[in-house]
Design goal:
Layout lengths: L1 E4 L11 E5 L1 E4 L9 H6 L5 H6 L2 E4 L3 H16 L6 H16 L3 H4 L7 E3 L1 H5 L7
Parallel strand pairs: 1-2, 2-5
Antiparallel strand pairs: 3-4
Length: about 130
């Protein structure tokens, strides 16, 4: 399980996991969250680079962390029952992530159990635009 994770370009897609990132927001005063595509465009390694790009970096909330822990636990124990809407969210995530121009340079294979935190996606509809 990866929580409080950045940059998304480093997502460990080769293993069964659940990932919940740090939240990125534009610092222009509107507090608008970055989309997945914007995360991938601004996949910096240093906090100063985010600041220079006008991006605020926020840690996950305690609810986002506990949701990720619960989701991973349910997956490990075989208790996770995906709904049609959760499947659609995962498909949309992978559609955007694998269309990123550098995806196949960085990731040669995607484990079928690699998942982006579903409750994070459910609560952040703008993220998958």
């Amino acid at each position: 399980m990866f929580v409080n994770f950045l940059p998304l370009s480093d997502f460990q897609t080769w293993c069964r996991t659940v990932l919940v990132p740090k939240t990125l927001r534009w610092s222009d005063g509107g507090r608008t969250k970055l989309t997945l595509s914007e995360h991938l465009k601004h996949n910096y390694q240093r906090s100063q680079e985010y600041e220079k790009a006008g991006i605020l970096v926020e840690d996950p909330t305690s609810k986002e962390i506990s949701d990720a822990v619960l989701e991973m636990y349910q997956r490990i124990r075989g208790l996770c029952h995906e709904t049609d809407s959760s499947k659609e969210r995962q498909e949309r995530f992978w559609e955007i992530f694998t269309s990123w121009s550098e995806f196949w340079e960085e990731h040669q294979w995607v484990h079928p159990g690699a998942r982006f935190g579903d409750r994070y996606l459910e609560g952040s509809s703008e993220f998958l635009r």
